[in-house]
Design goal:
A hairpin with a 2-residue loop joins β7 and β8. The protein is 28% helix and 28% strand. The two termini are 29 Å apart. Strands 5-2-1-9-20-19 form a 6-stranded mixed β-sheet, with no helix packed on it. Strands 13-12-11-17 form a 4-stranded parallel β-sheet. The protein has 2 domains: 2-36 and 74-104 and 233-298, FAD/NAD(P)-binding domain, CATH 3.50.50.60; 108-230, FAD/NAD(P)-binding domain (3-Layer(bba) Sandwich), CATH 3.50.50. By secondary structure, it is α/β, with parallel strands linked by helices. The longest helix is centred in the C-terminal third of the chain and has 19 residues, at 280-298. It has 9 helices and 23 strands.
């Protein structure tokens, strides 16, 4: 019996299992899924869990149930690419083919105190801790959110609806929010923050984090709690693999999403060096291509000379319960419609995976 081992139960590997089970997986193959949690976590909704506007049960989806899927729960401690062994503590798992989809963790950019004195929403465990810490804050406390990307924006807006009694400061490195996208979108988000008393601090450069203090350029901001959403990087065990990576420490892959020096190993999701920003949707369309490559190889058919280009269609973000913003197929959508689209995407995902 041959073994296909999937590291991480994120969006990429969830999509891959859906594409190859039950009909495409060869009869002499089994799948082993390894994850630290006994369920798939909806990472795109961790901001709501941390803010207290979504309960824990709403951001969980059960892994697929199939006789060909074995599950191993625990922390991966070693990936031996040469001997084709994954270690989970004292448990050794051999593989014939491997898909690494272990996701990312916060990148602190060597800012002193950032790792020690800030909270995170990168894992479900961290989002839970952040939620508890926010719950314990008294009225009129100040929360600093470092990083005004999609996660920071959604967390700030959700916090405003969850805790109207606290002050929120969103530290944005750029001159305007989401500078890579049309100014109409940026202006809409900024007006929402102005209306709902969320202070946006532009041109921020956080140089140090102390307990109760954020050092921004030459200014010091008094804060009761800081959440870090200012960048991500592949998890440490992937960064330490003996393979080529780009400047962001993401693994360089060929057009078939394989490590060039280990072609039985695929990289899916945030750990892969791709020409687009990491996202759940990008991981899914990448997984679709990995599934096609595997099917051809299992059938002893040649791979295409050129794989189709990965084409993410954009993103959708929420501004609380009723408003949102989106950039889809190079079109800007704001307001209630954008929020409905996001809710619909989430409902469909749960429906098709639940």
């Amino acid at each position: 019996m041959k073994s296909l081992v999937l590291l991480g139960g994120g969006y990429g590997n969830m999509r891959l299992m859906k594409e190859i089970i039950p009909s495409a997986l060869p009869s002499d193959y089994s799948i082993t899924l390894i994850d630290r949690m006994p369920f798939h976590s909806l990472k795109t909704e961790f901001y709501a869990l941390a803010a207290g506007t979504a309960p824990d049960k709403d951001i969980r989806v059960q892994f697929p149930k199939n006789t060909k899927i074995n599950t191993v729960y625990g922390e991966i401690t070693d990936i031996d690419l040469d001997n084709q062994i994954v270690s989970v503590g004292d448990t050794r798992v051999d593989y014939d083919e491997l898909v690494i989809g272990l996701g990312c963790e916060d990148k602190y950019h060597n800012v002193p105190g950032a790792k020690e004195y800030t909270y995170s929403i990168q894992t479900v465990q961290n989002a839970r801790k952040t939620y508890q810490a926010i719950c314990d804050l008294p009225s009129n406390a100040t929360i600093g959110i470092v990083g005004a990307g999609l996660s920071g924006i959604e967390l700030a807006s959700e916090l405003r609806e969850s805790r109207q009694d606290i002050k929120i400061k969103l530290f944005d490195r750029g001159e305007r929010i989401l500078p890579a996208f049309p100014e109409k979108l940026s202006n809409y988000v900024k007006k929402w923050f102005d209306k709902h008393d969320v202070e946006v601090v532009p041109k921020s450069n956080i140089t140090k984090v102390d307990p109760g203090k954020l050092h921004n350029n030459e200014d010091i901001h008094e804060v009761d709690l800081v959440v870090w959403t200012a960048g991500i990087q592949p998890v440490e065990i992937v960064r330490n693999l003996p393979v080529d990576t780009n400047d962001s420490r993401r693994v360089i892959v060929n057009q078939y999403h394989q490590i060039p020096t280990y072609k039985n190993v695929y990289i899916v999701g945030d750990c892969a060096a791709l020409p687009h920003a990491p996202s759940a949707y990008l991981a899914e369309i990448q997984a679709d291509q990995i599934a096609e490559v595997m099917k051809l190889q299992w059938a002893n058919k040649p791979l295409p000379e050129k794989m189709p280009e990965l084409k993410p269609q954009g993103f959708v973000g929420s501004l609380g319960e009723k408003q949102g913003f989106a950039y889809l197929m190079e079109q800007t959508v704001t307001g209630r419609l954008a929020r409905v689209i996001k809710s619909g995407v989430l409902w469909l995902y749960k429906y098709h995976n639940g």
